[in-house]
Amino acid sequence: MKKTIAILIFLGLAGCEAQPEGEPVARARIDGQATTQEPDPSPSPTSTLASQVESACRSIIFEDTSLTHCLAVPSRHRIEMALGPEGAPYRSLKAFSETRDGETIAFAMNAGMFDDDGKPIGYFVSDSERLQKLNVSDGAGNFHMKPNGVFWGSNGEWQVRDTEWFLTNVTERPAFGTQSGPMLVVDGRIHPEITRDGPSRLIRNAVGVDDEGRAHFVISNAPISFGKLARFYKDELNAKNALFLDGNVSLLWNPATERLDTGAPIGPIVAVTKKAAE
Question: Could you read off the pLDDT of 246-264 as tens digits, one per residue?
C-alpha cells in the first residue's frame, strides 16, 4: 500500500504566475454563500455518498494538501474550449456560467496561459476553429518553462503531450485544444526542472490523461508546489503526461456542489459537458 493516503471527503470548496497577484480567489456557492477554505474533517456518510453520485469532482487530501479532483470519462462526457462571444473573453467563470445551463455542465475550469486581454498566448482551438497557432518561442515565465504542452481531442479521444511531440505528430486540427506550460509529467517522468517541493506555493490547476483515455482535472484548495502537484499525477493518478494549466487565478465551476469560484480575470476556459443518456 502506498504511503500516500488519499482520503475522500465531502467538500464544497472550490493563476498564471506571470500575472499580477490580483484579487484573492473566493470559493463561493452559486447562491452567494461563502464556503470555508478548509475541508470538513468529519463528513456524514450520507453527504459523502451524495457527492460521489451527483458530482464528477471529489475532494481529497494528498500529502496534507486539499485538492479537488474532477474526472472526465469519454463515455459520459464531452470536452470543449470556450473563450467568449466573437473572441471577446468571458474573463470569469461566473460570466461563462450565465451563458450555459448548469444541468448540462459537469464542471469547468480556466485552462491555459493568456495575455492582458484574456486571449490565449498559445495554441487554442474551439469548436474546430483555431483561434491561436502553436507557440514555440522562448521566453520567461511558466509557459516557456520547456517542455510546455498541449491538451487536445476529438470524438472522445483526448491527449496531453509536450509541444514538440504535438508539432511533429498532429497533422489534423482537433475539435478542441489549449496550450500551456510547463508539463508536469512527460512520458511518465516529472518535468526535469521541477524540484520535489519548491518554494513557489499557489492555488494551481492542471490536466492529465490516463491509459484509459480519461481526463483528470485537478485544482488545489490550498497553495501547492509544482512538485507536489506533479507527484499527484504521476504517483496517484498514473497519468504519463500531465500539463499545468494555471496558477494564482485557478478557478472551478462545479454545478453539482454549487461551487462557483470568483477571483482575478481569467482567459481560456475548458468545459466538460454531460452526454445525454441513450
Answer: 998 999 999 999 999 999 9
